[in-house]
Design brief:
By secondary structure, this protein is of the alpha+beta class. The chain folds into 3 domains: about 100 residues, Aspartate Aminotransferase, domain 1, CATH 3.90.1150; about 140 residues, no CATH class; about 120 residues, no CATH class. The protein is about 20% helix and about 35% strand. Strands 4-5-6-11-8-7 form a 6-stranded antiparallel barrel. A 4-stranded mixed β-sheet has the order 1-17-16-23, with helices on one face. The chain is flat, with a radius of gyration of 32 Å. It starts with 6 loop residues before the first helix and ends with a strand. About 25% of the residues are buried.
Amino acid sequence: MRNLQNNADLARWPGLMTRGRTLLFCMLLVGINQPVAAERIKDIASVEGVRTNQLIGYGLVVGLDGTGDQTTQAPFTTQSLLNALKQLGVTLPAGTSLQLKNIAAVAVHSELPPFAKPGQTLDVTVSSIANAKSLRGGTLLMTQLKGVNGQVFAIAQGSVVSGGLSESGSDGSSVTIGVPSVAYVPNGATVEVAAPSSFGNDNFLTLNLHRPDFTTATRLSQTLNAMLGQGTAQAIDPMSVRLVAPPSAAAQTSFLSVVENIEVEPGEASAKVIVNSRTGTVVISKFVRVMTAAVSHRSLVVRITEDFDVSQPEAAYQVNPQGQTVVTPESEVDIEEGGAGEMFLFQPGVDLNDIIAAINQVGATPADIYAILAALRAAGALRAELIII
């Protein structure tokens, strides 16, 4: 593998910003083809070990305007307050009954980004875990945020901001806007311990694709080997590509800054039809095909037929040995609606896009579309995976 000296050397490598061939994403309803350029590696893959870590804690929000927990139904709120007061040197007489409405027990959570360092701040989400009506206007007391291993990584405290609102009248009527029992503390947590990371501890790096695909993993490794030298990358499975990297964290940072901006043409997705049964949305991928079949659903009749035509070279070309006789398929789709007898004829080269368009023309409902697609799939005429969401 060639050593990476600086960005100026990298800029001279031929084809660094090469555009790939077209990639067809999906076709909505009528199946419109939209070619796109190759994608950067940073958009289709991530570096193994470079990840966020979830943090969680338990705390108290005080200063509420009578919208806090009903302590008779949430005794742990009172217990938490007593423990907090004891740590501050305040001891209440035994048997003291507190009837508070301006305090709420909350779950506090945040995400520790990769490479976070002590002193950086994090946004915090605060959620009521008892029966508080609203956290609007409250203040979160000092709360430890722990990782899954129980270690404290950050400390949270500050004024909460709630986009929700809950008001009630004396006659029992109430109005609620949004979710007032969930609030936020912008920059409310301070990192105390650096995020754990194994980056730079090995001479190898692994890129994990966001969507596993044999073709994409192979193309990614081939592209990296062509640009950075043979032996740099190896596809170990449809999800992961292993890279030979410099030994230090600083060198690996520069190395990855080059790798993540290299463009790769992802492999095209398999044939799929996705139907949203609630909204009636139908998404069709590129390679969806329909074989010869006939479907009757209520007043709709769908017929798919396929004939074959022979393409014979003209007389002027018969002396040319390159002229060949070719058998070409010609497909037709007929849609009939009971009563009206309306029929739609399509040119050769029919696929599922034409069927969906025809069904829409006769005013079929989403349920009709789903029923027809499901019947085609059950008969083996729909050459695609049918996904209902």
